[in-house]
Design a protein that fits this description.
Helix content is 33%, strand content 28%. It has 401 residues and is an alpha/beta fold. It folds into three domains: 212 residues, FAD/NAD(P)-binding domain, CATH 3.50.50; 84 residues, D-Amino Acid Oxidase, subunit A, domain 2 (D-Amino Acid Oxidase, Chain A, domain 2); 41 residues, no CATH class. Strands 1, 2, 8, 9, 10, 11, 17 and 18 form an eight-stranded mixed β-sheet that branches. A seven-stranded mixed β-sheet has the order 6-5-13-14-15-12-16. A three-stranded antiparallel β-sheet has the order 3-7-4. Strand 1, helix 1 and strand 2 form a beta-alpha-beta unit. Helix 7 runs antiparallel to helix 8.
């Protein structure tokens, strides 16, 4: 029979944000345990698996396991409904370009780093409830291998993904409106025509309120997926509808319909602003649980890792000072907001605009940008290029571009 355990910090969820939070907390002196409800860290994957290899991750000493890199990527291509293409170099393509990775290997690598730093890890361990003493959160009740016991902790980290049961249990408002939820479906396909080293995005009514992505991997393999805005669907069976849209897209693209799906994944992701509240007394939310997924691109790995480092450092300081109050933990909240909140706000406004646009508008904008060197273009030059052909669009897009 398992005895109760005692730690300074318990991290619920062993994704990238959870692993990095745990690593930096333990490196700075806290005792930390990280829990994963599944039997294996990194699986199953809910991700297109694109990731920038340059810039921010190097700055915070995150070493990517080279075994996780499946294919180097040169940039992104955006396709309008009529087939106009905007090509963007990886320097400007955001945090989802640079390489296509194997998330199983990537996530395991980050967890190994956390373990090497001194974090204790338990898999196949589900947090079923929060422990409260004297009105304050004091750890989690867990179920592991059929046994139920407590893990007492000074602070709980909710790194348990989009649904974040821990966040809800703590009383933090995590509800989302339909326009802030995308339902997603993805195939891993083999036998497709080999593609250039670009991550491709297709926009318009083929994916209402979202987009289709094709991320090439090794040889004739690719991740082919779709995200559809929940508010754009009229059917209750949103995952089934997303699959139907994706199947129709693949059927109309001979370079893809020659292939075969050997894996499929489905789920929902947020396309919202971050939570208004990411800390309270003795609890902190990171990663998807805090809504750190970029509302425009759907990528959340880099934001989760950046916030995880801040969280880990603040947690270790809080433990040393024996102050796990909301007031002290607000150092984390302020830190991640300074890091990337403004970009998320800008991309959320862009997403809100994009889900209202018709195919004709997408075609007109991308047509106006044909021939531009986007790697060196400025926002002003983009607006001037669109204005030269479609002056009425500039007023509509100025705040977005």
């Amino acid at each position: 029979m398992m005895n109760d355990l005692n730690y300074d910090v318990v991290v619920v969820g062993a994704g990238p944000a959870g692993s990095v939070t745990a690593k930096y907390a333990v490196k700075n002196g806290a005792s930390v345990i990280m829990l994963e409800k599944r039997q294996e860290i990194g699986s199953p994957v809910r991700c297109g698996e694109g990731l920038s290899l340059e810039g921010r991750l190097d700055e915070i000493d995150i070493k990517i396991d080279r075994r996780a890199i499946v294919r180097q990527i040169d940039g992104a291509r955006l396709f309008s409904p009529k087939g106009y293409v905007l090509k963007v170099g990886k320097e400007m393509a955001g945090n989802e370009c640079g390489a296509n990775i194997d998330r199983d290997v990537f996530d395991k690598g980050l967890a190994e780093d956390a373990g090497d730093a001194g974090v204790d890890i338990m898999v196949k361990t589900m947090a079923t409830d929060l422990i409260r003493r004297n009105g304050k959160i004091a750890g989690v009740t867990v179920k592991h291998m059929g046994e139920t016991f407590n893990i007492n902790a000074k602070v709980v980290v909710a790194a348990d993904g989009f649904e974040s049961k821990i966040g809800r249990m703590a009383g933090i408002k995590t509800a989302l409106k339909p326009t802030d939820i995308n339902t997603c479906f993805q195939y891993f396909m083999v036998g497709v025509e080999e593609r250039p080293a670009y991550n491709d995005f297709y926009i318009g009514s083929i994916a209402p309120g979202g987009y289709v992505w094709v991320f090439p991997k090794q040889g004739d393999c690719a991740n082919v997926g779709i995200g559809v805005n929940l508010a754009s669907l009229n059917k209750i069976d949103d995952v089934g509808m997303a699959k139907k849209y994706l199947d129709k897209f693949i059927a109309n693209h001979p370079e893809l319909n020659c292939g075969k799906p050997i894996k499929e994944i489905a789920g929902a992701i947020s396309c919202s602003l971050p939570l208004d509240q990411t800390v309270d007394d003795n609890i902190l939310l990171v990663g998807d649980a805090a809504r750190f997924i970029d509302p425009l691109t759907g990528g959340g790995i880099v934001n989760g890792i950046l916030a995880g480092k801040i969280a880990g450092e603040v947690l270790s300081e809080a433990v040393q000072k024996n102050d796990l109050s909301k007031n002290f933990l607000m150092k984390y909240d302020k830190g991640w907001r300074q890091e990337f909140e403004s970009k998320m706000l800008r991309n959320w406004f862009a997403k809100e605009k994009l889900i209202t646009l018709k195919d004709e508008v997408f075609d007109n904008v991308l047509e106006a940008l044909q021939g531009m060197d986007i790697e060196h273009v400025t926002t002003l030059n983009i607006l001037r290029a669109v204005q030269s052909k479609y002056p009425d669009l500039v007023a509509e897009f100025e705040d977005m571009l």
